[in-house]
Write a structure and sequence with these properties.
Layout (H helix, E strand, L loop, with lengths): L1 E4 H6 L1 H7 L5 E5 L2 E6 L2 H17 L1 H14 L4 H4 L3 H10 L1
Parallel strand pairs: 1-2
Antiparallel strand pairs: 2-3
């Protein structure tokens, strides 16, 4: 991702339109990120991702938050278990 100042973006706008077809562009103002330029395809991908997250609902968010919190309590040995190991251990018990 390239970064340009807002003045550079104004002066090189046509060139940046071509650049965003390959990679996003960060535009800064006074040393801080002010905007991003992305291709139409990248923008559609972002919108699709936002829509998918909205459709998940609060139950999925709560479920993921619970497991993220639970992961912090795992022992080092438990962290090394693969999904297959866990399934095998559950079936054995």
């Amino acid at each position: 991702m390239i970064t340009v100042t807002s003045v550079e973006a104004q002066n090189r706008f046509g060139q940046l339109l071509d650049t965003v077809q390959r990679e996003p562009v960060t535009i800064t103002r006074h040393g801080r990120t002010a905007a991003f330029m992305v291709s139409p395809q990248d923008m559609q991908d972002l919108r699709d991702l936002q829509d998918a997250r909205r459709k998940r609902g609060p139950a999925v968010d709560a479920f993921e938050a619970y497991f993220a919190k639970a992961d912090t309590t795992l022992t080092p040995a438990a962290r090394e278990l693969s999904d297959e190991d866990v399934v095998r251990l559950v079936k054995e018990s």
